[in-house]
Amino acid sequence: MKNLLLTIVIVLAFLTSKATDNERFNKAMGETLVQLGQAKDLTSYQEVANKFERIASSETTEWLPNYYASLTYSLIAMQQKSGSEIDKYLDKADSFIEKLAQQKVSNQDEIEVLKAQIAMMRISVDGQARYMKFGSAFEAAIAKAKSINPENPRAYALKAQMIFYTPEQFGGGAKNACPEIQKALEKFANFKAISPIYPNWGQEQIKEMAKACN
Amino acid sequence: MKTFTYLLILYFLFIATQVFSQTLVTGKVLDEKGKGLPGANISLKGSYDGATADAEGNFKFNTSEKGEQVLVCTFVGFETSNKNLVLNQASIEVVFKLVEMANELNTVTVTAGTFEASDEKKTTLIKPLDIVTTAGGGADITQTMTLLTPGSQRNGESTGMFVRGGSAQESKILIDGLTVQNAYNTASPDVASRSRFAPFQFKGSAFSTGGYSAQYGQALSAVLLMNTTDLPTETSYTVNANLAQVSAGYTHLAENHSLSGTLAYNNLTPLFKVYPQNIDWIKIPEQINASASYRLKPSADANFKIDAVYAKSESGMMFTNTEQNLSLSKFGIKNNNLLLTSTYQKALDKNAEWVLKSGASYSYNQDLLSVNTDAFEKTEQRSQFRAVLVKSFDNNSNILFGTEGHVAQYGLTLEQSNSDKKTYQLTDNFQALFSESEFYVTRKLAGRIGIRAEHSSLASSFNLAPRFSLAYKTGLYSQVSVAGGSFYQTPDYQYYYYNKTLGYEKANHAVLNYQLIKDNRTFRVEAYYKKYENLVREYAEQENYFDANPQRFPNGRTDNSGKGFSQGIDVFFRDNKSFKNGQLWVNYSYCDAKRLSGNYLTETQPTFVSNHNLNVIYKQYIAKPMMTVSGTYSFTSGRPYYNPNNPVFLADRTPNVHNTSIWLNYLTNIKGNFMVVYFSVDNVLGTHNVYNYRYSADGKTRTEVRPAAYRTFMIGTFITISKKKVLPEDMRKN
Prior knowledge:
The complex is a heterodimer of chains A (214) and B (734).
Chain A: H1 2-17, H2 21-38, H3 42-58, H4 64-78, H5 83-101, H6 108-125, H7 127-148, H8 153-164, H9 173-189, H10 203-210
Helix pairs in contact in A: 2-3, 3-4, 4-5, 4-6, 5-6, 6-7, 6-8, 7-8, 8-9, 8-10, 9-10
Chain B: H1 2-20, E1 23-30, E2 41-44, E3 50-52, E4 58-63, E5 67-74, E6 81-87, E7 91-97, E8 114-117, H2 128-132, H3 141-148, E9 152-155, E10 158-163, E11 171-175, E12 178-179, E13 202-208, E14 222-228, E15 236-242, E16 245-253, E17 257-267, H4 269-274, E18 280-296, E19 302-321, E20 327-347, E21 354-371, E22 374-392, E23 398-415, E24 422-440, E25 445-456, E26 461-473, E27 478-489, E28 505-518, E29 521-539, E30 557-575, E31 582-596, E32 612-622, E33 627-636, E34 640-641, E35 652-653, E36 657-670, E37 673-682, E38 692-695, E39 702-705, E40 712-722
Parallel strand pairs in B: 1-7, 11-14
Antiparallel strand pairs in B: 1-4, 2-3, 2-5, 5-6, 8-13, 9-10, 11-12, 13-14, 15-16, 15-40, 16-17, 17-18, 18-19, 19-20, 20-21, 21-22, 22-23, 23-24, 24-25, 25-26, 26-27, 27-28, 28-29, 29-30, 30-31, 31-32, 32-33, 33-36, 34-35, 36-37, 37-40, 38-39
InterPro entries (chain B): CarboxyPept-like_regulatory, Plug_dom
Pfam family, one (chain B): Plug
Protein name (chain B): TonB-dependent receptor plug domain-containing protein
């Protein structure tokens, strides 16, 4: 009895003082993801990006913190107006992509999707001059993502988004985007994230776009 | 139970010590000026502990880590800062001062004398797409460059670019660092010819109108540097048809290499039918052009390219022969031209601190010319090699070492009815060594210093040319730069047929530049002074005799006693802001030049220099239907011409030249394949421009040198067929 109690207390003490690395990681990631979901302004997004970056610098074998740090910076870039500000945050997003290239990543398709998202935003800065370079980078990343995992809904969603915002005379526009939107919706319906902290975003935007198809 | 209570107390004590042994880390993150940086990330290395700086740049967090630790501060746009701490007390205060990363706003660029066209750099003033969307540029890279940048002019009756009071021979064109021997199609008398390049052959270019880098030589005035495209993005077919040309191409892209080929046939008959010609063509210009290129990217840090272009052309016309007392003579050209280039670039270490850039090329050009019954055969061959080793340093500085070697062979055969067949042969062995360093003293002050040594077997001597450039950032948006140096060029090889003792011609440049880039508007003003020495002079047998024929063969006495100068101001203004989806370009140059060279009798303003040049270009992008419309007005003040009746040499001026051009393209698709339809009119108003006058031997009659046509129409289409749609660059504009 005495020994048992002692064991319980020691285990309890150990758990509270230093939860197992994995739990601590999942908890920190989970909390930050909730914060990301609630983020509204630059300050709150920056806070989230910083947290992911701190987790990433500590958990050097985990790819998810770098992935989310990059994703958060691409979201911050999306809220910027001036081209140089967009580029500044995308440069930061790219710095995490570089770190991911040095890591063992279980879901490389998600990294390709992220690269496509960044390329799409690079185009938004100066489409006329940048389309040639980043347009092909976008296409290459989408193609690679789909070849690694044909079931990744985000690859279809981003492609749909690209077509959606392309003028009609070039095979773009809502109508031409609908088949890809449909595919993305199907893939989302069958999609199940590996764990709560694995990538699972993009469905809302595509549902919003799908309204134009009815 | 007692034990349990005891243990419980022990447990809470344990927790408590944990809580109470935490350290409170507080502090502030500031920029160089002492302003707080809200949003900066502070983290304790190896732990999750950290904080985000608040609106004032203050931060605060608790940590239970102990002992020696590293506190890291990162922020977007700033250099990361680390601080070593020892955590052994209840609280600690840390202040971070972050240094801004080098960016376009806080770092100066060495720009004096150069205009760049590329998509990669954000500060670029000219984009490659501008080459094909500028009215009056005729989709010709050299013609468009002279319109878009100040300091260079084109003269209607002569081929090439005339830069800052320099002759056309003083401007060289280089592809991936390799000199292009015959950059232009062989010209007919008094008709300027186009450059041989296709507009989409290059991903970028830099046009230096003075004080250029020690990496390049053999050009007294300017260099136009063009870089070939890399691996294409997709497999595709292209079809191009206009009033002068039909062409078809195929590009095959495999994983890390590509092969492409284009076949083009040019015939100006349809174009000449559209608008009356001032020239009596006896053989309408016809050309066959075949090109092939191979691209290989064996690894991320290496690049291999091969390009081959072959062209065969023929044309014939009646021209006003000054040697035959202004009677009309038959003139014919048959031209064969081959250009092979290959480049290889590789990073020599993992971080690409050392990079090797090398290239080799071979060119062959044959002109078979005929004037009435006389025949001339001109051949030019050049083999060259170039290697440059670049070492980059952390702070954007670099140093490079390079060498080049050329073997050029020239041949001329004259078969004239009134004399024996004559043959001339020349070989030039040319070597150069150069080294240059670009360095940042601070972010506000940067420089470039280089030296170049050359040896030409024709000039049979060495030359040593120092070059320098300095740039200082005077404000957030402005900078001042200076550039200068010595520039050497082996004289026109034709002079060596009769005189093997001629040495290098020399020019010294001094350039002062001010640039202001703010809110999508660019203003640049550049003043220059150029001094010429050792220019080649020709002496006629009769004293005070001047032969105005630009095609004359220099078979008289020559020496290096010529000299001259050129000074002026170039102004460049581009506005991408004031007009929605519109761009305005204005450039003006003033040039004052005099020289005593060639067969000139006195030191005077050369026939190819006009004092005032103005170009105004406006482009408008229209979203629906998707179009680009552009208009160009250019003005060139009168140039000197030779009037034998005027006792003062070259004192007369031709009339001013005005040209208004429009250009329009419409972007659409055929079954999802990208298609462009373009339409242009050169000299819309049909202004009767006169480029020059030619006098009869007795000086009693003269004829006007006019453009081939007063007004030119062009209509054409360009289609790309590919599996995945190629969307034009314009489509992403909005």
